[in-house]
From TrEMBL:
InterPro entries: APOBEC/CMP_deaminase_Zn-bd, CMP_dCMP_dom, Cytidine_deaminase-like, dCMP_deaminase, dCMP_deaminase-rel, Deoxycytidylate_deaminase_dom
Protein name according to UniProt: CMP deaminase
CDD domains documented for this protein: deoxycytidylate_deaminase
Gene Ontology molecular function terms on file: dCMP deaminase activity; zinc ion binding
GO annotation (BP), single: pyrimidine nucleotide metabolic process
Family: Belongs to the cytidine and deoxycytidylate deaminase family.
Source organism (scientific name): Paenibacillus dendrobii
Keywords annotated in UniProt: Hydrolase, Metal-binding, Zinc
Hydrolase is among the record's keywords: yes
Length: 172
């Protein structure tokens, strides 16, 4: 294989995150995350119900609705958010199943931009970089601001194309 056909590291690790996401049984969104230090893969995780508990495909989604005040165009508006509370997010599982020492100075590749809760957890986890592909506009502005305040590199791979076998229709 010549060097020109070889994938760059961002593509390589994001491909792995997407492959990991195929383990998810969530009907709304498959999310995968990988922990990387340098070029070494340290852990993988995906979203789903706790081990040994029926997941959303078996027991249905547990949707909780929340209202949040957001500022748009200089005025405050109430926005309704829906979240599945049965599912542990991929980023949360990654933090549960990796060691703090491994996270110090590491990067997280995640298929989707972290929600506010996951962003908070990642910001306190020791990682110094978060790379994602699909945006999550519900929390994007405040997550970007926090990452900037924390000095965590937070970047989206916009021109990235996931492996075909990982494709699914995403619900927001």
């Amino acid at each position: 294989m010549n060097e020109e056909a070889r994938k760059d590291w961002d593509t390589y690790f994001m491909d792995i995150a997407y492959m990991v996401s195929t383990r998810s049984r969530c009907p709304r969104r498959h999310v995968g995350a990988v922990l990387v230090q340098g070029k070494k893969l340290l852990g993988t995780a995906y979203n789903g119900a706790p081990m040994g508990v029926p997941d959303c495909s078996e027991a249905g989604c547990m949707i909780a609705e929340e209202l949040e005040v957001v500022e748009q165009d200089g005025k405050q508006e109430m926005v309704k958010k829906q979240r599945c509370v049965r599912t542990i997010h991929a980023e949360q599982n990654l933090l549960l199943f990796t060691d703090r020492i491994d996270r110090e100075g590491s990067s997280v590749y995640v298929t989707d931009e972290p929600c506010w809760t996951c962003a908070n957890m990642l910001a306190n986890s020791g990682v110094t970089e978060i790379v994602f592909h699909r945006s999550y506009p519900k929390d994007s502005d405040k997550v970007n601001e926090m990452m900037s305040q924390k000095g965590i590199v937070f970047r989206r791979l916009q021109s990235y194309e996931p492996p075909r076998e990982t494709a699914m229709t995403v619900s927001n």
